[in-house]
Amino acid sequence: MDPERSRRFEALARPNMAAAYNLALWLTRNRSDAEDVVQEAFLRAFKFFDGYRGGDARAWLLQIVRNCAHTWLRTNRSASAERELPETAEALAMPSDDPAELTASMAAAQQLRQAVAALPVDYREVLILREFEGLSYREIAEVVSAPIGTVMSRLSRARDRLAATVLGGEGVAP
Length: 174
Hints:
Layout: H1 3-13, H2 17-28, H3 31-47, H4 57-76, H5 99-118, H6 121-132, H7 137-144, H8 148-167
Helix pairs in contact: 2-3, 2-4, 2-6, 3-4, 4-7, 5-8, 6-8, 7-8
């Protein structure tokens, strides 16, 4: 094994591990499954690292994670009916020390996690990539292998569904 190749891969992959896990967790909805997906994705990325020609490393790695997650979902979708909901630090930031406000914030965060988890996978993945991982539309289009217009449409529909679920349909067009 080439130590220089391993060093270059690690330098490229390490900064993106949290984003990879977060995406896998939201897609699989289970910590153990997400860990398996990320491990498989990073093994594939390392195996084909010689074919990586530069560009956006984060988008390249997240595309591999997404593909591994979709493969996992096709294979194991019915294998596990019970799913955890991701609890990322970003999704659970608590704005107050007041117990009443903290309780309300926790309930709202739980409702939001459930609403995101209930989205179809195509909507959920673009929402996670945009809102939690901060990817641009172009980067998301690269990750999901879809035109930017499709990404924008999916993101809009995901946001509309979230609003309808969280707000109970108030002020949301059908």
